[in-house]
Amino acid sequence: MRDKNLPLTETVYYILLALIEPAHGYLIMQKVEELSGGQVRMAAGTLYGAVENLMKLRFIQPVRSEDSRRKVYAITETGMEMLRLDFERMNHMMQVTKEILR
Amino acid sequence: MRKLKFFTDIDKEEIWLNEMAKQGYQLTRKLLGYQFQQAQPENSVIKIDYRTFKRREDFEDYCALFEDSGWKHITGTKSSGYQYFKNINENQNEDIFSDADSKAGRYKRLSQMWITMATTFLPLFVVLMTTGSIKLSPIWNLKSLYYTPGLWEKTGASFLSAFLFETPFAIIRGFLWLFFPVLIVLYLIFAYRANRQYQKTNEGK
Fold this sequence. Notes:
The complex is a heterodimer. In chain A, 57% of the residues lie in helices and 10% in strands.
């Protein structure tokens, strides 16, 4: 059976993708906007809640930071697996759609 | 200038604070009441989040994130819950939330806080009752709340002055316990209201 956290929401997907390289909160927001081609613009309060939730799910974890004020996060093995599974799910959708719409 | 006011609706509180800023009153601190400073009238965007933090670093990180995204943290502490922000970058976001889910989330946290308050007072109330620290029985015999010896044998002016003198103490003796149920009921009302706001926001209204 499919994991209950799948499919990922668009924002969660982009946050996980952004955190393949460690980043702090504001950098995540910028990366998400860039990766989504300007489509997903997150506000501070929303990002904070999303990060907190992903920490609880252990999809991301804090890593050592040079900055004393800002926490830096990175994706975990579990997060990586989720990202891969969701990518495959979307890939499948693209393939079947292409065949039908051909 | 200080103002004492209480809101259960965070959206209304935001509107009021922005209205005050328009009249030239800038929020500087919120403890029990609001503290304002006379300033140039401005069209500010003040937004409120509700969050408490376990550790100092978590709070610092939270404030840093908001500052990085153009929101100045006006007032609020690690455990105050209410966090007040003001937009300092006009090109940036209009709100501190970008979806209905997270915007509703602050009401969820607020509602949970009120329920926690109510449920911590409830056992305290029960303990005070069962240990006899507070008694409900004097309500049926109000005379027993007056301790002045021979009070009820007195007459005329001497009765009246002794009676009136002791009445405030008698009220405290007899009805101080009411403080607990009243507070518990109030907290539950606040929790209910916050939860309704949560549902309303979640529906995207």
